[in-house]
Sequence to fold (331 residues):
Amino acid sequence: MAINLFGISSVHARHRARVAVRMATRPEVSWMVIVPLNAEASPFRLEGDDLMLAGSPIATVERVAADEAVGGYFRDDGRAATLNPNARSRCVGCAFCPNTLEAAADPRLAEERELTELLATMVEQHPHRDLTELREVTVSTGCFERERAAVDHLIGLRQVLSAHGIGARIGFLTSVIRSASAFEELAQRVTPFVLRLTAECFSRRDLLLKASKAVLTAEEMPEVLRRAMAAGHATSFTYIVGLDSLAELSDGVSKLMPFVTEFPNFQVYQAHNSIMAGLRAGGSDSLEFYLRARREIERIVSPIGLRPAAWECYRPLWYFTFDGESLVPPC
Fold:
């Protein structure tokens, strides 16, 4: 959590990089973090392959790669895939989003042929992957401005997957699909499907979010999730910890959880420059804020029985334990 919050100081000049880290205390588990490597004020320093804190090595860095907005990649040891089919790097609407710092390597894909080519390219890059074994294909993009365009894209994606013998659940990160009729159409033509509502924050939405997200108010979010559930879909939401006060976080999460079937994606807020730092909620520049947020979320979510899957989030609040329960199987 602290690495995500403070970033890493190093000789690299990258604003953002994908860094594979093994903690010295638990070297059997490798974690992927996406952080700035030019954070001069960070207490973490990369020296060679050693990640240092207060002059002592605390982790080994196995790999450093540029955080490019690519068209697609595998996760969960190949059992899940994430697609960026609508040019995620071109979406620059939300004030806190770091996409403007990424290399624009992801094309806008509008045709089934291009989606097929994207899947083929992913297989070529990972020749040992069997796409028919995929459990979930997540569409991660912020560039669908209209509900009809998003639904049409999901229908096309399901057709492409089915043509290749892939029955994986489709997950979609969005706030533009909201109507009962849209969820009913998805139930008829796209299932299995999981709505991952891009809530992001509950306060200052008109300031922090682009218009297509801000138009969905915090008060309306539970009803959108309820509509998706009523149509038979799985539901979740994404939320950036550090933009709201702890009281606003607690109130908003409590109202959404009755309409959620999957553990939400809670992310540590990363401020990559002074403007982003100015968007923080009071006190959220300290690790204590996120520890308190973690305890509050555990209080709300733990009785429901949902638990985080570490591979689903690169900036999570949980790694080895959740509310005292182990999340990592013993060696």
Summary: The radius of gyration is 19 Å. Residues 10 and 258 are 44 Å apart (CA to CA). The first helix runs from residue 2 to 6.
